[in-house]
Amino acid sequence: VRYPVLLTPAEKQMAREVCGFDLLRSEGRSYVCDVNGWSFVKNSYKYYDDAACVLRKMFLEAKAPHLSSTIPPVLPWKINEPVQPSEGLTRQGSGIIGTFGQAEELRCVIAIIRHGDRTPKQKVKLKVTEEKLLNLMLKYNGGRPRSETKLKSAVQLQDLLDATRILVPRARSDRESDSEAEDIEHAEKLRQVKAVLEERFALP
Fold this sequence. Notes:
Blueprint: H1 9-17, E1 21-26, E2 29-35, H2 45-63, H3 65-68, E3 90-92, E4 95-97, E5 103-105, H4 131-140, H5 154-167, H6 180-200
Antiparallel strand pairs: 1-2, 3-4, 4-5
Helix pairs in contact: 4-5, 5-6
InterPro entries: Acid_Pase_AS, His_Pase_clade-2, His_Pase_VIP1, His_PPase_superfam
Family: Belongs to the histidine acid phosphatase family. VIP1 subfamily.
GO molecular function: 5-diphosphoinositol pentakisphosphate 1-kinase activity; ATP binding; inositol hexakisphosphate kinase activity
């Protein structure tokens, strides 16, 4: 159940700097514990290349400001022609000679990688053709067949549970399907919906 929460001044400042995040309050302090992903960047190579450039510039300005202005602002593999050493910056073996003549060696590689693992959402998706469920959707969305319907109140959930209870024990021979396996899977999902409603909302 979601409730509106008033943010503290510090939390409001976090919200100005981060778009979409989860907040954890502990011992009087607040922490950003997760930054939500944006769907438009999931398959965007440009987004991650730009992020790499921004982070590289931040690291250089913090730890090697004398190199910050000499390294090209774009990633090397984005340049069609071979990268030419900038003025005041030459390569020598595995090290780099800076303007001040001090040899510098690569100490580490920092990578920005989007992991593929994510917490599975507890969702059940099923395509319904049962008249009872379709009528229930129309009842709560104003009779618009192609409109989204959200059932949240206790009365609405009770109606959904009542309809599901009727459908679960019944043989589904009246429903058109591509295979018997689909029928079994559909019936199992209905049982899951029924079980969750009975357990979570403790409805009679």
